[in-house]
Amino acid sequence: MALKAGLEIHQQLNSGKLFCNCDTNDNGKDLLFRRKLHATSSEMGEVDIAAKTEQIKLFTYYNKSCNCLIYADEEPPRGPNEDAVRIALQFAKLVGAKVVEEMHFMRKVVVDGSNTSGFQRTGLIATGGEIEYNGKILELDQLCLEEDSCRHGDENHEYLLDRLGIPLLEITTKPQLNDSKDVQSAAKAIGRLLRACNVRRGLGTIRQDVNVSVNNGQRVELKGFQDLSSMPKVVENEVKRQTTLNEIEKGNIDKVTVVNDCFKEKKEFALALRIDKWKGILGNKNSPDNHVRMGKELADYAKRAGMKGIMHSDELPAYGIDGDETDQIKRKLKCKENDAFILIFGKEKKVENAMNLVIERIKTNGVPAEVRKVTPENLTKYLRPMPGASRMYPETDIAPFKISGINVSKPKTLDEREKNLPLNDEESKQLVSRELDGKFNYLNDKYEIPKLISRILLHTLPQLNDEGEKISIGDLEKVLDLFKDGVLVKEGIPNALIQSSNNEEIEINSGNIDNEVRDFINDLIKEREQFIKERGMGAVGALMGPVMSEFRGKMDGGDINKILMKKIKEIL
């Protein structure tokens, strides 16, 4: 078995929408409208195979945040968004890709309802380039700038427009990955490079697809990875699936037969089909884990015609069909001992369409080129056929956009930003991961106290934020000025930040605080003298509690500890 895999990464860019002037905040009111979409032919007069499989449906759209007419497909697009183009060009510089002189947008037919216009606009930015992962090199194929699709609503026919039109950078790699773990490592490496640019963060802002084939067979696109940790297992399971499919003999079928008269209770319309020597191949719930279960594969095809699924001989009698009815179907189809049959019933037109899709799949030997969805069980299920070249045709509403003269600076990678911080690896990673290194560098250039600034940014401010306090950069600078002047101790910083944010007077160290602490410690030692003699220097920890409780924020804890230890030594 020889695995060949490549990646398709789709990353949302942190700019306005690609072809209108609206922002991407979900703060608009719902404006409801409906559209019916259907597949159109390309310039060559052909309808793409993936578009053909979509039924003509009436889709309902809820327009949130983007309340202009462009993404309701009532007005021609503007743009493209120059900020989005610049971000894409920065990534092209990071990976050493060759930028094209002019960007020409194309229309990609999409009639599943995820775009109001029935197509997605996409333009080529650059070709080539490479990324490094685990000491290996993965070559890139191309970088494209395209518009994101709608989000699904509560029902299958409902879509939300808040995501539609957000710029996506699509990164396609060459199929050079030969190990399932390399697929995950390469995806992580691309993700880290992307975060060097101004990209959106959070759940759903980056999506990874994996193209998989074995032994130079057909390419299968896997979509819908929930997280990178599942990638190796999903790829391994897909390799097993494809390997098993290549070992299954092509199914020979008989004519489709109406079997309405085989049931004791009348069915609306029922069609059955015999498959020679496929007994056991269709599978059932008792099949071993490594069984492909062609019955489930065929059921996924039937669902594209609007059916809930199919029934077949490997699982019957069951689901309300008894043994006599099963035998009756076998006799009518003239099934032999090792033959199998498919059964579909429902509305006549849907049943006929579903059976045609099932027949097409049975006739396909080995692994069909298709798009499959990743399931929570780390398996895959059929979504649609692999789209072809007839899916694309030129965009006539957007003029060519010259990009060769646009100068952008090459951003620092996350690795470079981490190495530039005067902190340990863990703190550096946390600051960069949370996009706090810019603020850290600004404050540290001014105050030169890296450890303290790191602690404030990583721990103090998040804790105060959880408590409902909103601390500005001005509050930080005011408090750090007091600390540098020696009138505020580290322990007093959190309280001082709160006071500053509330426009209150900041409590600073009083001139006689040292004497106050010494007097308090002398009284405490007299009171606990016997305890100290019993514990010796082990009493320091127990006595630090009440002293810190009294003087927290007024004097440095380390200084308090030194005074306390000195006084205890004097009586031992």
At a glance:
This protein is α+β, with helices and mostly antiparallel strands. The protein has helices at 49-52, 82-95, 180-194, 231-247, 294-303, 323-333, 348-363, 414-419, 425-433, 437-447, 450-466, 473-484, 493-501, 513-527, 529-535, 539-551, 557-571, and strands at 3-12, 31-36, 58-63, 98-99, 102-103, 105-109, 119-127, 130-133, 136-147, 151-152, 158-160, 167-173, 206-214, 220-223, 252-253, 257-258, 270-276, 311-312, 340-345, 370-374, 380-385, 392-394, 401-402.
Major pleated sheet: 12 strands, mixed
Count of domain modules: 4
Low-confidence residue ranges? none
Distance between the termini: 77 Å
**Shape assignment:** elongated
Strand content: 15-25%
Structural category = alpha+beta
Radius of gyration: 33 Å
Structural description of this entry:
This protein is α+β, with helices and mostly antiparallel strands and 572 residues long. The chain has four domains: 3-248, no CATH class; 252-365, 2-Layer Sandwich (Gyrase A, domain 2); 414-501, no CATH class; 513-571. It contains 17 helices and 23 strands. The strands form four sheets. Strands 1, 4, 6, 7, 8, 9, 12, 13, 14, 20, 21 and 22 form a twelve-stranded mixed β-sheet that branches. Strands 15, 16, 17, 18 and 19 form a five-stranded antiparallel β-sheet that branches. Strand 20 (370-374) and strand 21 (380-385) form a beta hairpin. Helix 14 crosses helix 17 (557-571). It is elongated, with a radius of gyration of 33 Å.
